[in-house]
Design brief:
alpha+beta; 7 strands
Length: about 190
């Protein structure tokens, strides 16, 4: 008998951002540019962000896929949700949701993590990254610049590329849902 995985409790990280909701949204869903709040990755899609679309967060060198997922909801400027699988981990994907609400003087931003297996490496990484993402998104929306931690992650980007696993190469994570990933047999 196979044991069912135990899912961690839903995690919500709430941040108030002193910027209009449209500004926060445009920063959050930017594609084709490195995003310091997503650890310097570029959001890559084939036909834009929309429900059912495959997305991946790629290293700025565009040779490494860091995160892959499928867009579950995309309702500008209030809701964006997608599955989330880190390509360097074997853990099952979880669900990430970004909710934005207009408040007096700014935007309330929730980063929600669901369906992560309790105690998995993915869950630990996600919980550890929530504050980093919120802090840097806030800083960019308010000032146009990332926080110090976002600047440091951007500076470390070349090192991250050197430490990437072969399985993280972008050809293993195609954006087309029916495309078979290239299987690495041997690398010369």
């Amino acid at each position: 008998m196979t044991e069912q995985p135990k899912y961690a409790e839903k995690s919500i990280h709430r941040t108030f951002i002193n910027a209009p909701i449209e500004t926060v949204w445009s920063v959050l869903v930017a594609t084709d540019e490195p995003l310091p709040f997503f650890f310097g990755s570029i959001c890559d899609t084939k036909d834009g962000l929309k429900p059912g679309a495959q997305m991946r967060m790629v290293h700025p060198n565009r040779k490494i896929a860091m995160v892959v997922g499928e867009v579950l909801a995309f309702e500008p400027p209030h809701l964006y949700s997608h599955t989330f699988q880190m390509t360097n981990l074997k853990d099952a994907p979880c669900k990430v949701t970004y909710e934005l609400r207009e408040k007096a003087g700014g935007t309330e931003f929730d980063l929600i993590i669901e369906d992560a297996i309790e105690g998995s490496d993915l869950h630990k990484q996600m919980i550890g990254g929530q504050a980093f993402i919120a802090k840097n998104l806030k800083s960019i929306a308010e000032t146009g610049k990332p926080a110090f931690s976002g600047k440091m992650v951007t500076l470390m980007s070349p090192v991250v590329a050197l430490m990437a696993k072969k399985e993280q190469k972008i050809e293993h994570w195609p954006l087309e849902p029916d495309a078979a990933p290239v299987k690495l047999v041997k690398e010369g």
